């Protein structure tokens, strides 16, 4: 990206330039610099870039510019833009970005996802909004109830497409496509590019341009990665010990299970560390409050399952800690991508038990590098404490951790589950090989 390139280099319009500058941005990131001109030209596009590189603005800015030429919107004729996202949190974050960049434009929008009442979403769709941000499950439910009109859709975006496939949304996506206009501009954004992503692109995109920033599935280079080998029963105690460090200002801790996340949260609260938890059994209101408290620094630690591994754009996270080693290499990439975002730096720490050494070696082969091993005296493998449980050992800590403010970032997800394409396609052209931009 040229140092002289600014958002005013793109024909986005005065009102969007103003909103972007009011948000504190002047120069586009590499994915934005590569994708925005192609989208403005009307090309279908596949954008592959690491998390935290500005993919959301890469598609929201040109779509807003095309929805509102010269800052005005044409006569309303149903929904013109649809952005699909895998999780409620990501959908809410996209909505926030659209409102930020479109604050001076007459764009009407609705956000559609589960876990909240349908009635306001139905009313918004019936009112003829210009842009809809939606999770596939709830959107399909409403479309099947004859709410909403996508027959004149001009722009379709698959955001975090790899996670949508991970979460088994392919059948729902294929059904949604029955309501979508066949002549449209389609954009697909993802942190990784797998065979499944290429299949999705070939089915729904038309001769797409491929914009790829960095190596596929490569964790952000700004993230320092390390591993602690520790006995399973000492993990909670080691976590509390590490959190004594002042550098761990805003920490996202990943648990493999919902019950494990709750257990870790209780343990940290007993140790005097302000903590929130976030997983699928929490209500939408609870998840929203946990995220807001984490963003604002009201809590120092957010404990989450992989539902938080994608799509939450929160600045300033200092550390990601894999309390439970991730199930797949892709999950590892997306987890640690919550820190070291954009131009920031961050640290990713993983706890590894003896039973997980094989998974660690497989991850290192995937990354093409060795992850640094660290040890803390007293926590080495073979040094498991006798007697009290981990929760009991940290109930009355000898330290009084501070409560530094900080902000952090979660995102959504689950284990990789390959889905077989089912149902009819979109009626687009025959599959084509991708052209590199």
UniProtKB/TrEMBL annotation:
Basic and acidic residues bias spans: 419-437
Region (Disordered): 382-437
UniProt entry keywords in alphabetical sequence: ATP-binding, Helicase, Hydrolase, Nucleotide-binding
SUPFAM superfamilies: P-loop containing nucleoside triphosphate hydrolases (SSF52540)
Pfam families: DEAD, Helicase_C
InterPro entries for this protein: DEAD/DEAH_box_helicase_dom (IPR011545), DEAD/DEAH_RhlB (IPR044742), DEAD_box_RNA_helicase (IPR050079), Helicase_ATP-bd (IPR014001), Helicase_C-like (IPR001650), P-loop_NTPase (IPR027417), RNA-helicase_DEAD-box_CS (IPR000629), RNA_helicase_DEAD_Q_motif (IPR014014)
Molecular function terms from GO: ATP binding; hydrolase activity; nucleic acid binding; RNA helicase activity
Assigned GO CC terms: cytosol
Catalytic class of the enzyme: hydrolase
UniProt motif Q motif: location: 5-33
Protein name, as recorded: ATP-dependent RNA helicase RhlE
Gene responsible for this protein: rhlE
